[in-house]
Amino acid sequence: MSGFAVYTIGIVVVLVLAAVLCLFRIFRGPTIADRMVGVDIMGILFVGITALTGIIYKLDFLLDVAIVLALISFVATIALAKYLERRTLDD
To answer: What gap in Å lies between CA 82 and CA 11, rounded to an integer?
Structure first.
């Protein structure tokens, strides 16, 4: 097994473990802010999985998809933070 394959398997294991921990935080979070952080981190993990898949299979368009997903995740986090503060989006 090549070194790249070993690193790839290790990265996938870490991402899956992080996803399980995020799901725990999403379902058991005592406040909506804790759940929001869990969903935000799940979005970041999804971006990482998409980018990793693009690198492994040499599909360049998946890196573009990962960038767009990161931007959407950022905007959604800002919108939810504004909502939790009870402010409008134009403030």
So the answer is: 33
Give the span between the Cα atoms of 3 and 76, in whole angstroms: 37
CA dist., res. 31 & res. 22, Å (int): 14
Which two tokens mark 48? 């990482």
Question: Which tens digit of pLDDT belongs to each residue from 38-78?
Answer: 989 999 999 998 888 888 888 999 999 999 999 999 998 88
> Counting Cβ atoms within 10 Å, is residue 26 exposed (0-12), middle (13-18) or buried (19+)?
middle
Q: Phi, psi (5° rounding) for residue 31?
A: -125, 165
Helix axis angle for 60-84 and 32-56, nearest 10°, is 170
Q: Is the Cβ–Cβ distance between 43 and 69 less than 8 Å?
A: yes
